[in-house]
């Protein structure tokens, strides 16, 4: 009887030890505002970096293509936002992974030096749209929504940029834009925006699947967060701890950018 009890206790101990060792996957999908960090008094680059450091993740996902993550600093500066490539230099002891997608024409290839100025058909179409007075007049209906987006990006804190308000406004903006561009020569723009969101979300989901049990943060341009967040929630549900901002970095102070 005593032997049976000891075996049972050892079995329970081994079982409970296994449960303890199974780490919960923690994921934060954090909106960044790119160049606006330099002028937003409530959400500077310093605020973002302090947030990352306090969170202390195993993995930092950045809006850089995976094929470009080991490129030179000059190359990264020419193609990506500061907060994204700065993480590679700033956190050498953390695993930094890229998840961006910029089009099938350059997929798996280096971005040509003059790509954005002379080659990209998306950039050329955007420039043409910006000079089309008839289409611009139709797009004035988006002015109020665009102004609200800018107001949030230029004034709100890290927590406020991630509380869902910007996500909803941004969803409305791009839904209306797609309807206005439909059946025009500019429809390729909304198609590209949608495809990029889809690819970013897929890449982030794959990173999470490959790193279950770890603590991850994904720095993502605010315009892409809504779609990605929705897809991550659909795939993982309550299997991961998602966007637990409430218990993170409560000691961060607001600092003005230099």
What does the model show?
The protein is an alpha/beta fold and 258 residues long. The protein has one domain. The chain is built from twelve helices and five strands. Strands 3-2-4-1-5 form a five-stranded parallel beta sheet, with helices on both faces. Helix 10 crosses helix 12 (222-236). The chain is globular. The chain starts with a helix and ends in a 16-residue tail after the last strand. The model is unreliable at 4-10, 12-21 and 253-258 (pLDDT under 50).
Give a short overview:
By secondary structure, this protein is of the alpha/beta class. The protein is built from twelve helices and five strands.
Which descriptor suits the 3D outline?
Answer: globular
Mean of all residue-level pLDDT scores: 90
Radius of gyration: 22 Å
Element pattern in H and E: HEHEHHEHHHHHHHEHE
Helical amount:
40-55%
Keywords for this entry:
globular, five-stranded parallel β-sheet, 12 helices, single chain, 258 residues, 5 strands
Topology:
Elements: H1 2-21, E1 25-32, H2 45-55, E2 59-65, H3 73-79, H4 82-90, E3 95-100, H5 115-119, H6 121-130, H7 133-138, H8 143-155, H9 158-161, H10 165-181, H11 187-209, E4 215-221, H12 222-236, E5 240-242
Parallel strand pairs: 1-4, 1-5, 2-3, 2-4
Helix pairs in contact: 8-10, 10-11, 10-12, 11-12
């Amino acid at each position: 009887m005593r032997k049976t009890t000891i075996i049972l206790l050892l079995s329970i101990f081994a079982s409970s030890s296994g449960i303890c060792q199974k780490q919960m996957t923690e994921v934060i999908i954090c909106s960044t505002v790119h160049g606006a960090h330099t002028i937003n008094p409530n959400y500077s680059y310093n605020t973002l970096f302090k947030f990352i450091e306090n969170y202390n993740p195993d993995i930092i996902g950045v809006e850089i293509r995976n094929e470009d993550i080991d490129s030179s600093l000059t190359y990264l500066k020419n193609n990506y936002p500061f907060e994204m490539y700065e993480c590679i230099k700033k956190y050498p002891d953390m695993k930094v992974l890229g998840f961006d997608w910029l089009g099938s024409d350059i997929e798996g290839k280096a971005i040509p030096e003059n790509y954005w100025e002379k080659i990209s058909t998306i950039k050329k179409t955007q420039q043409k749209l910006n000079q089309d007075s008839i289409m611009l007049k139709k797009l004035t209906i988006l002015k109020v929504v665009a102004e609200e987006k800018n107001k949030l990006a230029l004034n709100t804190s890290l927590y406020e940029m991630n509380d869902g308000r910007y996500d909803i406004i941004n969803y409305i903006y791009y839904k209306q834009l797609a309807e206005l561009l439909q059946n025009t020569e500019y429809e390729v723009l909304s198609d590209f925006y949608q495809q990029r969101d889809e690819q970013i979300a897929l890449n982030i989901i794959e990173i999470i699947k490959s790193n279950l049990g770890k603590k991850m943060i994904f720095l993502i341009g605010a315009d892409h967060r809504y779609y990605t967040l929705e897809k991550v929630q659909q795939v993982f549900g309550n299997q991961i701890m998602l966007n637990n901002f409430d218990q993170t970095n409560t000691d961060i102070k607001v600092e003005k950018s230099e």
